Amino acid sequence: MIDAQSRLYQYDLEGNRLREIPLPAPGSASLPRGKEDDETLYYRFTNYATPSTIYALDPATGESRLHFRPSIAFNPDDYVSRQVFYASKDGTRVPMMITHLKDRDPLGQRRLSCMAMAALISRSPQASIARSACGYRWAAFMRCRTSEAAANMGKTGT
To answer: How many CA atoms lie within 13 A of 113 on its CB side?
Structure first.
């Protein structure tokens, strides 16, 4: 995980890195799983706008394809996520994900749902039906790693 986002890398049996497996977007991915002789491995991907989705990975080529997407009354294409960074009082670079409806200005005059975590607790991006439903009524939601960063959100110079 780099800056609160998953990265998948493929290695050979000697420990040499072969390639990075491209993910569909910034978010959280599980490790690819399968049996030793399987020609296809499967991993789960999610982020704030994507419900948990299963991808099939061909380890020979490193290419992924969509295997299963849940059928729910939610269109992830209506949302956009971006990562921003804020500096805490001690200068620590704090990654934050801001997700909002594409047709809304995330900096406009709207309510904001903020999920804040203690600095030692790392949470990676994941979809939530409850937060998604709020997204239709509210402008945006974000997750940050410190409550201080959340408290400073929107203040001048932060």
So the answer is: 16
